[in-house]
Amino acid sequence: MWKREIQYAADQAALAGAWARSNEDTRQVYANRARQEFASNVSTTTEIDSTPNVSLANYNGGNQNSVVVTVSASRTLPFSNFLTGRAATVTAYSQASFTDGTSYTACLIAVDDDDSGAITIGGNATMTAACGMAALSNSPSAVVINGNPTVDPGWVVSAGGIDDWLSTNTDAEIHEYMDGLSDPFASLTTPTPSPNPAQTYQCIAGSTTTTGDKRVRTDTVYTYWKGSNTNNAVQQSSYTGAGYMADVTGSYGAWTTNTTLPTNSTDGVVTSDSAPTWTQVSGSGSNKIYRKQVYRTYTEYDNTVTVTTNTQATLSQGTYVGGFQTSCTTVLNPGIYVIDGGRLKFVAQHQVTGSGVMFILKNGAYIDIAGGADINLTAATAAQLSQVGGLSSTEAQKFAGMLVFEDRASQGSKKSSINGNSNTVLNGKVYLPKSGLTFSGTASVTSSCLLIAAATITLQGTTNMSSFCPDGMTNDDEVSSGQATIKLVA
Questions:
Q1: Where among 273, 307, 341 does a domain terminate?
Q2: Which of 57, 302, 340, 403 is 20 to 30 A from 387, comparing alpha carbons?
């Protein structure tokens, strides 16, 4: 009984000491932790056991990578003492090894827990952004390579198996069948923006306007005509007879500044005449003389500016039931955009810009970025999520940098796709825990690594992910926290 009790307590002490030794915060007190654990696991031998001896030892070629605990229990017993003349003593020995854990981040994270091909790379896809790939699937074929891709991800970690192609054709670190991998966003719950009005997508026709300065002068101008009536009269080059009146020259008024001008006006003077007034001043028959009076206006323009706006949709925070599809140049104001069912579709040839935005996909909504689309989207900062989105400061900190977030209550979709080009710029994180994502084409970033986490991820065709992460940058979202491995070895 003594032996069983102190052996069990020694085993627990060795494990506790190994855990403590593997943690920087408790490294120096591992022996105390081991003795505390021993004491909590003995009862019968409490008064007869020795203080456990706790030390470090080499194990399996390692250096001081295990904790050894030795202890004994001794007591004089009537019968054994009569035969041996000494106390009865039992001993226990236990050894637990530890390995320091390694933390891993990744640009591509497949969060499905058992799907084969959770990450699939095929065709002539290029993934040379050395920011890591991770598959949380425990399938023997969690990461699959098809076709003839160019892959240099830096490292690949998986809870299941990884295609041998990667170890044969790349220099990447390969870590398969890993324990302790986790979804870095698993604790996030869908936020609700405030305010959250119902919104619709609408294109507003463009226009051309001209503004500038102007001043006006009006002259009275007289000309003289000869004929039987004004319809057949001929202008006289000189006339000084009866009814003659000299021209009256006006003066410019004050400048009117920064005013609306006729569209496409330019700097200079524009002349216009009023309707004429005819007066017969002499003669009869075919020799009648007519005086023609007009008011001639001189309008002078200066500092003219002509602005032409395209047809454009300007969107704001709120809920878009059924989603929307771009049909013109689209500008998204900072805020949170809830896509309630349907799709968020960015059509080719339509420019889409938005800084400080986050999309929430609900009720099966999915995202579809078409090839040729000119897109520049940047996720909201914590300050923008608080000031515009109406989130609490704590919630805003959690969602800072999140560009697309799929509600966990959504049924998900297999239709989400990104088919970008050289003008597709996505700054932020895309999280689709219920949906598969197909990526083809290319996308780039300007300020941080692009992170895509989805149930499954497929890279196909001419995917080019070489610009997913600027040189020297990584993301901070860990799929493995670096938990140490502890095991009892003796």
A1: 307
A2: 340
